[in-house]
Amino acid sequence: MINGGTNRITGTTTVIGAGGGSSIYLANANPAFKSTLIIENGANLSVSGSFGDAFVIGRDGGVGTVIQNGGTFSFNINDGSHEFIFVGASGNSNTRAEYDMNGGLLDMNGKTLGIALGANTAITGLVNQASGVITNVGQLYMSPFFTQGHGIYNLTGGSIYIGTGGIISFAGSTNEMFLGGGTVGATASWSSALNFMLTGTNGPVTFDTAGNNIALSGALSGNGGLTKVGSGTLDLSGADTYTGDTTVNGGTLKLDAAGAGASKVRIATGATLNLNYNGTISVPAFYTNGVALPGGVYTSANLPGFITGTGSLTDSGPSGPTINHPIVSGGNFILTGSGGTAGNGYVVLTATNLATPAALWTTNTFGNFDNSGNFSNAIPVNSSAPTRFFWLRTP
Known about the structure:
Strand order of the largest sheet: 2-5-8-11-14-17-20-23-26-28-31-34-35
Shape: globular
Radius of gyration: 25 Å
Number of strands: 45
Number of domains: 2
Distance between the termini: 67 Å
């Protein structure tokens, strides 16, 4: 039991359970117990053997935090009953628990990572992953076993690889799944009915099926997007409303419901879009290999290299770039936007009089839209021209 202070692991530390009387707790049984365990670069922490309980971070009133900055943490309790890491497990509302994954490797060896086991009272557990790899997770269990827990998983970088148990929660509990960058992968086929918020914090989240199938029946919402890589299938069957780009760089993206989508769809050669429904999905833009297709209805009949299934995709066609509300910052006029054709060029023209003939506007700057069709320019403010107009022109 680690019930106080900050504890750092910098070398090799091995913990072996000796049977039913063994336990391993960080911050146990009293609100005054506030403990932090830091796993540093070069560290090697191993937990194995048999125990009388799971490995618990923040238990029965304690406040426990694990910060992994690097190194390797191998968790391999193997007694058939207590093969869990619980980030928070309590019937005491003072309990707080957090695992900050900033680097290194957490190897779950097929065991369960559970967030916020709350019994008889509401507690909160948080796994915050900014980098590093969490692998061989047999099951990610949000608010396991009881209805009072509130589990939060926040992915902004790094990767997590999950096995057959998938991502689940106990009926009646609450959870929040934030995906804003990083990779969610599969070591075996798995499914989840939970809702996911695609935040876009560090770009789109990547789903790496790696030859397996991932089936998501919950709703995907938010401003972020998703990218599908690896062979295998990502199956989306929920009421998805996310607005970021949907990019398929490998394998198959299977869509199971018709309707209207706010996401632009991009498919690379060798990847497949399986439209597994009757009817159509309407999208604002459709790209193959980075090239915007003309507006129209696309099916397995007229686009067989990219589309399978019985449904269709209705593309409203590119409408040209959308310009965000400009701001002035640091002496620069910040001009940004989206919706261009990836790789194509643009020119920013300027004039001090809106009535100036188009041929007389002067070039201020130029560039190319990035792979997502976005652009950004910082144009120095010229105080000698109190009124100035800008025109974004595309070929």
